[in-house]
Amino acid sequence: MTLRKPPLREVHAERDAKFTEFGGWDMPVEFDSIRAEHAAVRESAGVFDVSHMGEVEVAGPDATTLLDRLTTNDVTSLSPGDAQYAAITREDGVMLDDTVVYRLPDEERTGDDADGAVDADAGPVDADAGPVDADGDDAGERDSHETVPAYLFIPNAGHDAQMHERWVDHRDEWGLDCEVRNVTEDWAMFAVQGPDAPDLVADAVDDGGPDVRDLSRFSATFAPLAGADCWVARTGYTGEDGFEVLCPWTDAEAVWELFAADATPCGLGARDTLRIEEGFLLSGQDFDPEDEPRTPYEADIGFAVDLDAEFVGRDALAAQAEAGVEDTFVGIELLDRGVPRHGYDVTNEDGHVVGTVTSGTMSPSLDKPIALGYLPVDLTDPGTEVRVVVRGREKRAKVVAVPFE
Amino acid sequence: MSFDVPDDLRYRESHEWIDPETGRVGISEFAQDELGDVVFVELPSEGDAVAAGAEFGVVESIKAVSDLYAPVSGDVVAVNEELFDAPELVNDDPFGDGWMLELDVEEGDLDDLLSADEYRDQIA
Questions:
Q1: I want to staple B23 with a disulfide (CB 3.0 to 4.6 A). Which of A224, A338, A389, B103 is the partner?
Q2: Which residue of B38, B39, B42, B61 is the best one to mutate when testing the A interface, meaning the one whose CB has the most A CBs within 10 A?
Q3: What are A390-400's pLDDT values in tens digits?
Q4: Which among B37, B40, B60 has the least Cβ separation from residue A34?
Q5: What is the interface pTM, i.e. ipTM, of the complex?
């Protein structure tokens, strides 16, 4: 299979980056040293090319309804500029993906557009769209001029086509009026993370743009960078302060260079060690509808489920919320020497297999072996002793709270 | 990128080197670069016997696990225990402080290994 290439594949290659396949994309895993890149994010700032992440745009009178029914969180609570973490579940409550939903500025529709016609040629969201109307999700009486809500959500790498299809199918099944566009290859995405990231990103904004330091966590705005209209969000997946910047694919190199001059270019290797230290889930590894079918409650992201919303999987999750889960996602610290890896068995003190490591690494910050995985709830109290089977040998370990300390 | 390949060592295709004079064994600069940051090394104990071509240990980087293969058969006469606390020595000095074992070497056993030039060709 031919791998999809991020727009800066060759730029990274010129920096001697090493590459890996991830979600069908050929992505930089390491520029110089995972340990050094990890440390840069914890201590100063690092910049990641995460253009393999999907982007799906949903806009129209019923966009809010569609997103609300297909994600586990309360989309109706979002105002333009808000971001929200959510899961995407199937009928039995099993997670298909996790995602961040951004509410974009409302779009103005005129003429044919306002009658619900789909503009197949529409590209990335128009940064000048407006005016902002927080009540724009109410279709109400339509005339030839109206504002409609618009959203961008971020499926995980390689899931964009599947999620686009899911959204389109449900839109059609439910007879909703909105456009759903897979704009994954219209947007490049960079994560600038670390304590120095706010000043760095703020300095990168063109004169006259907003001061992005004013953005609160999980909020976003359009801002001009290197002459390009970029969506700048105070979100990220490293546990550090920072931003995720979406820019038009064609402007990717100019925007990347704004950051790469002052922040350490980082690959997916450091992104993995950073997110494991925080206990953050990795789609396809810590949960997967085929290989590791888990609900949001099992995956310990119940905070992203709003049972007052009506979404696919809601009834199954309500039942699980009532009955409780059998297994839950925990942190595990190895006490013996070794490195826990995805797929290693976890056993109890009697030697019986009770769970599996879904992610593991030698923590660069803490310099100790750490893992994530699912264990029966009676073994999840911090301090509970377990074993991790490392290449056939049981290593002593204990359950710990995340983030790891 | 070009990598150091000392002329006085012999090499396995799987990237281990051995010093014919001392019997010291390690992995090449190319191998440590491919692995990335080494975080863990598992080695046999002094007195253990290893067989040519057989696994004798494991080197783990943050992103990968790799088996280590013995260049020749022999008994382990020394183990670099510093690597247990400082596995990064494999990255920093793969032909020096990052050595792993010392084996008692029978001379004929070295004949099957690559010369420095042959190994350079392999990693070119």
A1: B103
A2: B39
A3: 999 999 999 99
A4: B37
A5: 0.89
